[in-house]
Write a structure and sequence with these properties.
Layout (H helix, E strand, L loop, with lengths): L1 H18 L4 H15 L7 H12 L3 H10 L1 H18 L9 H10 L1 H47 L3
Helix pairs in contact: 1-7, 2-3, 2-4, 2-7, 3-4, 5-7, 6-7
Length: 159
Amino acid sequence: MINLFVRRWILNPIVTLLRQGITPEKIALSIALGFTLGVTPVLGSTTLLCLLSAVVFRLNLPAIQLVNYFTYPLQFALLIPFIRMGEWLFASHPMRISVPKILALIRVDVWSAISILWTTTMHALVAWLALGSLATLLLYVVLAAALKRLARSSLAGLR
């Protein structure tokens, strides 16, 4: 069942992109950036960040956005850890906050939520930048190597 899911929703689309001439490096960068930008601790920013990255780096927009949408649950799961890491990095007083409280603040008044959470969000963003840069690099290197092998094996059958 998992094997079928992986083949249908991950491997087959990647092989299709490779057969269309998209390089393994571009696909790897799309996946790495889609994942890293998808967990940005700034709610509501990931789609725009992925769009801008796709345009700037000439990446496959559907691929980067698909990875972004798959990582959506991780954005919420990592929000508080990024906040805590930001508090630690800046030696700031820990805020009594949770994801449900953040969402409730946003629902009541978006501008008030931004005002209340501004410093905390900026600290979390710095933590994300530190870890995200490393994660993007690591993901890119690993995925590029794996996708080059996949390209050789899947494109060899076309010759």
